[in-house]
Amino acid sequence: MICGCSTNRETSPEKKEKVLKQTASFTRLSLSDFSNPKVALCMEDISNSLVGGSKLYVFSFAELRVMTQNFARINLLGEGGFGPVYKGFVDDKLKPGLKAQPVAVKSLDLEGLQGHKEWMAEIIFLGQLQHPHLVKLIGYCYEEEQRVLIYEYMPRGSLENQLFRRYTATLPWSTRMKIAIGAARGLAFLHETEKPVIYRDFKTSNILLDSDYTAKLSDFGLAKDGPEGEETHVITRVMGTQGYAAPEYVMTGHLTTMSDVYSFGVVLLELLTGKRSMDDARPYREQSLVEWARPMLKDPNKLDRVMDPRLEGQYSRSGAHKAALLAYKCLSHHPKPRPTMTNVVALLDSLQGFQDEDAFASGTFVYIVPNENAAVRPVSDDGKGSGSGADEEGEGKRSGDGRRRRNPRQHGNRGLRHRIKLPLSHLVTYSDPALYDTFSNGGDSPVSTPTSFRKPKEQL
């Protein structure tokens, strides 16, 4: 644990010298550089040590009260294992160089299951790692018992909310692929840095979305530095969220970048199916999404059974098939066959060329622009409308007893009629939910047991 500034404790000169050398050489500092319990480092030391051109602002707790209207309930965005998250606003006069903007204020719950170490991990990683697909850490508050982090505000909330909550509109195929690519780029960046970072808790609630659905990774409390030198893995206590962790990590505690690849495969499968990774409300054999869906991902004839029915067929079948094959590879039971995140990004980028036209090419439905002066009629396979000619042929002639005789031609065409179905893109409008209640963790925090998982949130 890292202690705060104190007048009765001394900072190790050797520790400071190491930090300064790393800073001068622009080598990213790792969490282990600050994890010596015998060394007391001031937060000022840590803030000044962070490299990569980062600029973290230090906020007083009084300033946070003003920013959040005294942490008003109306500004509460959500609450997870780390603690509550509030929406706030930074005035342009509050900090020199900091522009006026909405922010997300995440406060550590001192009685929660996450603690100072996870709080420090956020500062160490996000204070130095900057990328378009990582959420931006603006600053922090370290005052007496207060541990608070201030992030950029993500107006569309988490992918979990957008994908699973009933009050939101269905995400179209193109948006789902955009989110997948953005999240993949964020993971690839972490894996390809000079000191690789293993994210360890990749899931829908930790993927935040800005106003145009650009995905950014958040919550680095469980992130770990990757293996160094000739080491192939990191041995650590198994932590994470049930349904997302790689099987070899669960069984052995061996953590590699391929563990993140498996978790990405789970999220990609959730994007394809619209189903949660774990759901006790589903039939027994379908409760684990991976176990149920993975055997069908390689078979194009079974693709319809896997795809989210809310898409109503409005997706590129060829693109969906390639995405399903990618998910299959990421979800391999063994780490070696899994692709690297760099390869994942390359494949997903290639899918952007697949348009949605082939969703319309099968001829399974016809869309007719409504005309207020004319009734919408069923359409037959030959492309001719049926119904308007009823007065001429369809109605036929009346018999002597006043009953109509059916026209055999009309009777024969009855089975050829199609039901008119409006494309989903014409029915859906985007919503911008005011709340996103899974900013921080999306579940309960890990407990201090040899193997601990956070259960996914229950489906509303």
From TrEMBL:
The EC number(s) this enzyme carries: 2.7.11.1
Region (Disordered) residue spans: 376-423, 435-460
Family matches, as SUPFAM superfamilies: Protein kinase-like (PK-like)
Protein's UniProt keywords contain Cytoplasm: no
Keyword set includes Nucleotide-binding: yes
Gene Ontology MF terms in the entry: ATP binding; protein serine/threonine kinase activity
Basic residues compositional bias, start-end: 403-421
Gene3D superfamilies for the chain: Phosphorylase Kinase, domain 1, Transferase(Phosphotransferase) domain 1
Signal peptide as annotated in the record: none
Gene Ontology biological-process entries: defense response
InterPro entries referenced in this protein's UniProt entry, alphabetically: Kinase-like_dom_sf (IPR011009), Plant_Ser_Thr_Prot_Kinase (IPR050823), Prot_kinase_dom (IPR000719), Ser-Thr/Tyr_kinase_cat_dom (IPR001245), Ser/Thr_kinase_AS (IPR008271)
CDD domains, A to Z: STKc_IRAK (cd14066)
Cellular component, GO annotation: plasma membrane
Alphabetic keyword roster: ATP-binding, Cell membrane, Kinase, Membrane, Nucleotide-binding, Plant defense, Serine/threonine-protein kinase, Transferase
Biased composition (Polar residues): 438-452
Domain Protein kinase: 71-351
Protein name (database record): non-specific serine/threonine protein kinase
Organism listed in the record: Linum tenue
